[in-house]
Design goal:
CATH topology of the largest domain: Replication Protein E1, Chain: A
Helix content: 40-55%
Radius of gyration: 22 Å
Order of helices and strands: HHHEEHEHHEEEEHHEHEEE
Number of helices: 9
CATH architecture of the largest domain: 3-Layer(aba) Sandwich
């Protein structure tokens, strides 16, 4: 049996956990609005006719809200669809060694630059190899299928580009994930080294331990996954679930019992437990 508004119920039950000054203000405000979504707290409009009066409550407009996020998802997909031309695209996934997940989780202010680094990696490689400027759409993910923190990038890249010198579009280019990986690895390691040197990187590790870690991970291969052909419809449908909707759909919740929440694993279709 599907639970009614399970995310709201969870947020209300654990309000003492998140509703305090140590929680990031944007998270605290979003959770509060989600609880108040479609309730008298946010206000309402009154529609009346000769036979009926109806009150329509305002929504929270928060992207992590199940109902508001779904509407934002459709709107975002439509906007991106109209802006992306009908050319051939490839799909890229830029990951990093899992030891860096904790570093970026502790330094969320550094997360904002990851899409820029990823985009510059593709631009630089395409310019060096083919002398063209491609179309790029970067979507940053900060969680995985099991709701664990996992910083990585999903990218839609045109399999062609604009030759600015000749003012023409070149199609049918073959992308190389190994080339992207080397530039991506260099970009992230360099970025973290600069952040450490500037004193804006916090970590449980000592400075010398961080330097050794960065040097060690520069010598190993990172994983860059590539799908040589992908439609913009497929990419937008997948990406929108992460940037305009909650991490977990409401229909996946099976049971809420105090600190325990049981939900269905979307991939394997069997219940999983998470404890608060």
């Amino acid at each position: 049996m599907q639970l009614e508004e399970p995310i709201k119920q969870i947020l209300k039950d654990i309000r003492l956990v998140w509703d305090h000054d140590e929680t990031r203000p944007c998270v605290r405000e979003s959770f509060r609005k989600m609880i108040e979504c479609r309730t008298p707290v946010l206000g309402w409009l009154l529609y009346a006719s000769e036979t009926e009066v109806r009150r329509v409550y305002f929504t929270c407009k928060v992207r992590s809200c199940p109902s508001c996020g779904y509407r934002a998802t459709l709107q975002w997909q439509r906007e991106q669809w109209t802006q992306l031309p009908d050319v051939s695209y490839a799909g890229l996934v830029f990951t990093m060694p899992d030891v860096f997940w904790r570093i970026f989780k502790q330094n969320r202010h550094l997360l904002h630059d990851l899409p820029t680094i990823g985009g510059e990696v593709v631009l630089q490689w395409m310019k060096d190899i083919f002398g063209v400027r491609p179309l790029i759409l970067v979507v940053q993910h900060t969680f995985g299928r099991h709701l664990n923190f996992n910083a990585h990038l999903h990218m839609l890249v045109s399999a062609g580009g604009l030759s600015e010198a000749e003012s023409r579009w070149t199609e049918g280019l073959t992308l190389n994930p190994v080339g992207f990986m080397k530039l991506w690895r260099h970009g992230i390691i360099t970025y973290l080294r600069l952040a450490l040197k500037a004193g804006i990187l916090k970590s449980d590790l000592k400075s010398w331990e961080l330097r050794e870690l960065l040097a060690d991970k520069y010598e190993v291969g990172w994983h860059v996954d590539m799908q040589a052909r992908i439609s913009k419809r497929h990419f937008l449908g997948y990406a929108a679930r992460y940037i305009r909707r909650p991490p977990i759909a409401q229909h996946r919740f099976q049971e809420i019992d105090g600190p325990m929440v049981k939900f269905f694993d979307q991939r394997h279709c069997h219940p999983r437990d998470r404890f608060g």
